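Researcher: Before we compare anything, I want clean individual predictions. No alignment, no superposition, just each chain on its own. First chain goes here; please echo the sequence and then give the structure tokens.
Model: Echoing the first chain and its structure:
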Amino acid sequence: MHTSVGRQPYDVLVVGGGIIGLVTAWRAAQRGLRTALADPEPGGGAARVAAGMLAAVTELHYGEQTLLGLNLASARRYPAFVAELEEASGRDTGYRTCGTLAVALDADDRSHLRELHALQRRCGLESEWLSGRECRRLEPMLAPGVRGGLRVDGDHQIDPRRLADALVTACERAGVALYRLAAERLSVARERATGAVLADGTEIVADQVVLAAGSLSGRLAGVPAEALPPVRPVKGQVLRLTVPPAYAPFLSRTVRAVVRGSHVYLVPRENGELVVGATTEELGWDTTVTAGGVYELLRDAHELVPGITELPLTETLAGLRPGSPDNAPLLGPTALPGLLLATGHYRNGVLLTPVTGDAMADVLTSGELPDAVRPFTPRRFAPAPSPSPVPEEQPA
């Protein structure tokens, strides 16, 4: 085994090179921390499959109002974050402020959307109710049967693949050492995380370790049970189609709906790509693209935008979202000193990239989580202490 000793140990080792690991490493390096990142394919992971909707408002779910605050905080940071990242990397991220239209296809969907609109208003969010005719005026390709919809101009989009590529370049330019190998085991000495052993036996020594390996975060050997993140893989199948010039403009904004209880969305890119997603399947580590998954996505998308069946189908892909018990991320220190988490972002990883990078840089440099992130500490899942046994009453 050879080690990174011989040079000075790193201040931070990030395990995992998806967009969350990359943004953590980039921000840490910007703060002057000597930073390394270990991943066999930096820029890979769930971001290669994600659609990139920055939909803090239309993604609102009942019971997730605390997460909404974090989502909105991150959405507000996006314009400045993108400008800084594109300047640092020299790469375009495909960021678009095109807005989102959520539509209803039947009376039940319309009722659900009305309830969502009321919840959005109670939370102080900006969204506008439109009639079916007004929806079709905005997006002429919509099906004639659309019954109404919500126009949300503040929900934007980004191309996650370009975002990941820009973050890799920004990390390299900021001096992050990229080890293109998987971390196989966490190193622990004197009850503290001290680095990790890579697949080729290299031992990276670091003062702090950030576990940011997405759905794989719970599988790193050497992490004690009390610090192991409770994340699970949630499969999502996604399609990519191409809009030929003769069909352009096909859609001008992201369009989404609930069709027969399943969420479907269509995200148009400026380069003519149209992303259609996504299934939500609790199938463990399976990443098979299935005929059923492709059929259901195309069937639901066709009900929404009938003209979609005329477009060339250019890619089918399945990825794994990192789900947590409450669908919210795990950010910050664990029960093991020196080990921090940045994982469990589920369906909000792309949206939460800016706020995650800032929060992790703060806690790595100061030891303190920002107030907005404290509800998402990994310690919220710590097992409750066992109650003390009650002494039995002695007979008189």
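Researcher: Okay. Second chain, same rules.
Model: Second chain and its structure:
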Amino acid sequence: MSALEASKEYGRRGLRVFRSFLNAVKVKINDVEVGLTISPEVGTADSGDIESDLPDLMLAIGQAAKAARRPVDELQYLSESEFSALIMSIHKLNQSSLPVILVGAGLPQILGLAGTSKSYAERLFKFPEIGALDESDAINAIVNPAREEGVTIERAAVAQILTLTERYPYFLQQWAHEAWNVAEGNQIRAKDVLLAHNNAIAVLDEGFFKVRFDRCTPSERKYMRALAELGSGVQRSGDIAQLLKVKTASVAPTRSSLIKKGMIYSPSHGDTVFTVPLFDQYMKRAIPKMA
């Protein structure tokens, strides 16, 4: 934005404030410290307190955005302290009527985290629930792109894909892709979906699921295997502990760690469920028998 005539000064000041912020809050990427050669804005965003400095930085960005008449988008996955600082920043920006919008995604407990961090968070943000596509959107996601390529899909084939994927967006793409690969001609039939099923599962097992599995410790995998043993959907944390033959309190740290890693979440107190569908089936393939 510093290259735009209308916002040159605001853009340059934003960079100076960012330089001050980097001095106070060290930023490293793969052990490489990030910095700017521009001189800092002394006295602004340089206290070392993120809850004080981040709002100042965001204000500088907002002022540059306002002058440039361009949006600034932020997408973050934050710790509790960082989330608190960001909420304070957005609150300060709202008070100054500056054009900065935050669009973020998180598991359902993000709503509780927002309220815990700052009591006024509920007034600052809207929290729409994003889950599986509804049936009409899921059908359109499969049928419309195929139609644009001159391909038709049998109604029975579409219904099978919706059932197998539980209408999870990424899975819809994978199953439709694999079905098209095995189909003959310009029509995808129900038999093609069945034939492609193992291919889709194999791809997910080697990539989508395995990446998540590999991030977990042996004790975390054992907990997830017990959760999978109870079946798909929401399960009581006490039932998982009982299956593991331990007290609920003793596996609470493991459960908490899995929530932080995004493997599971708690839709309500004492309940536990996998964050993505079909992961319970993967756990049974990855660990056929419980230890």
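Researcher: What stands out in the second chain?
Model: The two ends are 58 Å apart (CA to CA). Additionally, DSSP finds 13 helices and nine strands in the chain.
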